[in-house]
Amino acid sequence: MHNATDTLLLRAANDDLAAHAIVANLHRAIQQRMDRDSQAHGRFSRAYIAELFDIGRTISAQCRPHHVDSDWITARRAWLDAVLRDHPLDRGDARLTAARHAADGFLLRACVLGCDATPDAATERVRDALIAMTRPAR
Predict the structure, then answer these.
(1) φ, ψ for residue 88 (rounded to 5)?
(2) How far apart are CA 84 and CA 80, in angstroms?
(3) Which pLDDT tens digit goes with each residue over 80-135?
(4) Which of 1, 34, 45, 103 has the fewest CB atoms within 10 Å of its CB?
């Protein structure tokens, strides 16, 4: 390293790679859930919600707002936009979008407050209600 700028650039590149690796792992986990779901309507949103809740319930105490950084947010947003292009019904349905946004909020809350912030029974009820929103209306 020649100077502080080189060090900062290397650190930024590593942070960007880490953010993309986290998103790739998220994608694989969601795809595995989707592969087990036979109902087409809302399949991506159900998998997304379930995965974010599982992550949020097991998140380590080291995750704090500074760990939810701009690299991760940018990589996740780009991934989500790309995935939703492949799932136009999920992208265009307001109920599915609202349910996904609520799951995003749950995960961010877990990052800020830790996994003990919400009791398991309450967490499961919220997750189940959001997943119910992904089912076709009767």
Answers:
(1) -60, -30
(2) 6
(3) 999 999 998 889 999 999 999 999 888 888 777 766 655 678 888 999 999 999 99
(4) 1
At 22, phi and psi to the nearest 5? -65, -45
Please report, as a single letter, which amino acid is at residue 34: M
Q: Classify 107 in phi/psi space as left (phi over 0), alpha (psi -120 to 50) or beta.
A: alpha
From 71, 121, 70, 80, select the one nearest 104 (Cα to Cα).
Answer: 80
CA distance 31 to 37: 10
Domain boundaries, the chain: 4-132
Neighbouring residues of 33: CB distance < 8 A, sequence distance ≥ 6: 46, 47, 50, 51
What pTM did the predictor assign?
0.80
Q: Which amino acid is at 17?
A: L
- Long-range contact pairs involving 28-31 (C-beta distance under 8 Å, separation at least 24): none
Q: CA 117, CA 108: separation in Å to the nearest integer? A: 11
Q: Which amino acid is at 96?
A: L
Q: What is the band of 63 on the pLDDT scale with cuts at 50, 70, 90? A: low
